[in-house]
Amino acid sequence: MSSNTNLGKEIIQIFFTSGFSEGFSDFLWIIGSISILMLGVTIGVLVPVWLERKVSAAIQQRIGPEYAGPLGIIQALADGAKLFLKEDIIPAQGDTRLFNIGPISVVIPVFSSHLVIPFGYNIILANFGIGVFFWIAVSSAVPLGLLMAGYGSNNKYSFPGGLRAAAQSISYEIPLALSVLSIALLSNSLSTVDIVEAQSKYGLWSWNIWRQPIGFIVFSVASLAECERLPFDLPEAEEELVAGYQTEYSGIKFALFYLASYLNLLISSLFVTILYLGGWLLPSSSVFVFNSGASEYNLIIDGISEAIDAAMGIIITLAKAYSFLFISVMARWTLPRIRIDQSLSLGWKFLLPIALGNLLLTTSFQLFLLQ
């Protein structure tokens, strides 16, 4: 928390010495952080959309997007522009307020979750002491938005879709939270930065995936269900509910649901990376140190070293996250959809007892080491 706070104070001090007032400098820092978050998230979502379309095309022996940008990389931007220009239709017999609030209530928590994702020791917007539980807390508000969208549409397909979304989310949030709690016990912290730092002692072999293999499986399955990905896309099952809670939506509001679904998938992949795959750390425990000596170029060399470390941290984190995201995409186009009763049974009857047992084993092991 202190490193990130000191960085913010240094930037505010630069604005202050440039002639701006302290209040205006704080305002610029807040606006700059929000702008960086929005820009990074918007650019980051292009890769999951492109990867999903290209992988699905390869599985089905198609070409996929190829005209919008190099290899079709900006096809998502073209789709967003098209949806932005489409007419916004509101059901005549629906609840207008709930219908309009629904997409906003879904996309805001998803954007807020990026605040606690570290790409390096100091590359984080908000290093909260309860970072992982902040993510769980804000993401738990998403089903409420889906339920409002389904109820406000006044549609026989939308309302069951909203109910399914709420039921499925509650079923899998508890095992997911228990898996996160096991990681917090091993790391003695709820901060995402501290959790990554706790995995740096022995390189690859200190990653939590080896110490928490059961928790990794539970977290992976639960995160897929939270993202409503196949085989857990029951809230929007096309053969049963047309498009679920999205049936009555069009234009920019439908685009918000579309954006939130892929951002949620990206966030889940990033948290898998942070909690189990060492975050920005390399598999090797060796570290490259730039020894600048006592020459007059110390500051320049140190600045270059910090820039290289920051760039490497971002690249390593994204590479791990997109690797796990590739597995999620493959699962969507490989596994069949399960029934809603099977989905809820998996969450309550299997994942919850397994997550509880894993938490008890982790707690017992930690208590044994303290004695």
The major pleated sheet works out as: none
Report the end-to-end length measured between terminal Cα atoms: 30 Å
Helix content: 55-70%
Q: What portion of residues belong to β-strands?
A: under 5%
Name the structural class: mainly alpha
Please, how many helices? 15
Total strands: 0
Helix-strand string: HHHHHHHHHHHHHHH
Mean pLDDT comes to 81
User: What overall geometry do the principal axes of the alpha carbons give?
Assistant: globular
Radius of gyration: 22 Å
User: What are the segments in which pLDDT stays under 50 over at least 5 consecutive residues?
Assistant: 1-9, 286-292
List keywords for this structure.
371 residues, mainly alpha, 0% strand
Task: Please give a structural write-up.
The protein is 68% helix and 0% strand. The radius of gyration is 22 Å and the shape is globular. The protein has 15 helices and no strands. Helix 5 (96-112) packs parallel to helix 13. With 371 residues, it is mostly helical. The chain has helices at residues 2-17, 22-44, 46-59, 75-85, 96-112, 131-139, 142-152, 158-187, 192-197, 208-211, 213-226, 238-241, 251-276, 298-332, 340-370.
Would you summarize the structure shown here?
The protein is mostly helical. Helix content is 68%, strand content 0%. α1 (2-17) packs across α2 and α8 packs parallel to α15 (340-370).
Describe the protein's topology.
Elements (H helix, E strand, L loop, with lengths): L1 H16 L4 H23 L1 H14 L15 H11 L10 H17 L18 H9 L2 H11 L5 H30 L4 H6 L10 H4 L1 H14 L11 H4 L9 H26 L21 H35 L7 H31 L1
Helix pairs in contact: 1-2, 3-14, 4-13, 5-7, 5-13, 7-8, 8-11, 8-15, 11-13, 11-15, 13-14
